[in-house]
């Protein structure tokens, strides 16, 4: 049965999924150097340093592990949201990941920073996606 959430949920899934995958491509250097075409990091080492700035209580090596875990989560959430697999679970995971990211940014970089990059809005969008009752154009519920 068609509902009023069909197009908005598909749009949310696509933009959240792409929003996870593009930064992953940036941190692997696949989109070019830092500062080119809006790239933030341009390489893995720069991303690990950024992760360490969000978790200054960790050593550089532990920040590297957290960077790898966050990257893995972003890849999984990005792909599953785009293809429509386990959407609710991926949306909840996306909500939690982006909320933690936003809170870390606010605490360690300043309260305005996560708003400048719409991280709280991404988190809210993921939470909203998790609350939609049914998902069309998906390969699982």
Tell me what the structure shows.
With 141 residues, this protein is mostly helical. The chain has one domain. It has helices at residues 6-27, 44-54, 60-83, 87-108, 113-116, 119-131. Helix 2 packs across helix 3 and helix 3 (60-83) runs antiparallel to helix 4 (87-108). The mean pLDDT is 94.
Break the fold down into its secondary structure elements and pairings:
Blueprint: H1 6-27, H2 44-54, H3 60-83, H4 87-108, H5 113-116, H6 119-131
Helix pairs in contact: 1-3, 1-6, 2-3, 3-4, 4-6
Proportion of residues in β-strands: under 5%
Helix/strand class: mainly alpha
- The arrangement of helices and strands along the chain is HHHHHH
Report the count of strand segments.
0
Proportion in helices: 55-70%
* Largest sheet properties: none
* Radius of gyration, CA atoms, in whole angstroms: 16 Å
């Amino acid at each position: 049965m068609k509902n009023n959430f069909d197009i908005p949920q598909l749009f949310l899934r696509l933009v959240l999924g792409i929003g996870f995958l593009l930064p992953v491509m940036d941190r692997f250097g696949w989109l070019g150097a830092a500062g080119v075409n809006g790239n933030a990091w341009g390489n893995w080492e720069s991303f690990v340093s950024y992760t360490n700035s969000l978790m200054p209580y960790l050593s550089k090596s532990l920040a590297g592990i957290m960077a790898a875990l966050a990257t893995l989560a972003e890849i999984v959430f990005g792909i599953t949201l785009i293809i429509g697999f386990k959407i609710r679970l991926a949306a909840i995971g996306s909500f939690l990941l982006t909320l933690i990211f936003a809170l870390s940014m606010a605490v360690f970089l300043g309260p305005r920073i996560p708003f400048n990059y719409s991280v709280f809005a991404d988190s809210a969008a993921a939470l909203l996606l998790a609350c939609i009752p049914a998902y069309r154009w998906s390969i699982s519920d």
